[in-house]
Structures are given as structure tokens and as C-alpha cells.
Amino acid sequence: MSDHVSYVSDGSPIEVVLEGGPEDLPRAFRTGRSTLISKKLKIQHRNGYEHFELVNDSTDITTAIFRWTMRTKIAE
């Protein structure tokens, strides 16, 4: 995570939706509620990480939509 953190929510849980990425990413990761503090998400999946970035960049967010941007492998 970078040194600069952008706060997405005020600490209250908001709806999170993930778009794109591998089809076998567990459904439990695709939607849910979270108290997000970052505009980027990194989810461990298989032998790597799936990276997602916030799409709707607004201070008044009720649903945070994150779109898949890339995959990185875990260093061995």
C-alpha cells in the first residue's frame, strides 16, 4: 500500500462490488460490506494477487465499485 491513503468511507460500512478479474474468484469476494479506507484492493487468489481499483470516485459513496486492473504473482 502507498504512503498516501485516501479515505473512501467515514468508517461506516458501505457496499463493495468487484468487477472483472478471474471467473473463479470466490463469490464471497465479489460483493459485501466493508469500512474501506483505500481506493485500491489486493486480494490473494491462487498463487498470486488480484488488484482492483475504485471506479466511482466520489465523497458520497453508498456502493463502492472496484474494477480489476491486474494480477501479480507471489514471490517465492
In words, what does this structure look like?
With 76 residues, the chain is mainly beta. 5% of the residues lie in helices and 45% in strands. The protein has one helix and five strands. It has one helix at 27-30; strands at 14-19, 31-34, 40-45, 48-54, 63-73. It has a five-stranded mixed β-sheet. The longest helix has 4 residues, at 27-30.
Outline: elongated
Q: β content, as a range?
A: 35-45%
Number of strands: 5
Query: Taking Cα atoms only, what radius of gyration do you get, to the nearest Å?
Result: 13 Å
SSE succession: EHEEEE
Strand order of the largest sheet: 2-1-5-4-3
Distance between the termini: 20 Å
List the helices and strands and how they pair.
Blueprint: E1 14-19, H1 27-30, E2 31-34, E3 40-45, E4 48-54, E5 63-73
Parallel strand pairs: 1-5
Antiparallel strand pairs: 1-2, 3-4, 4-5
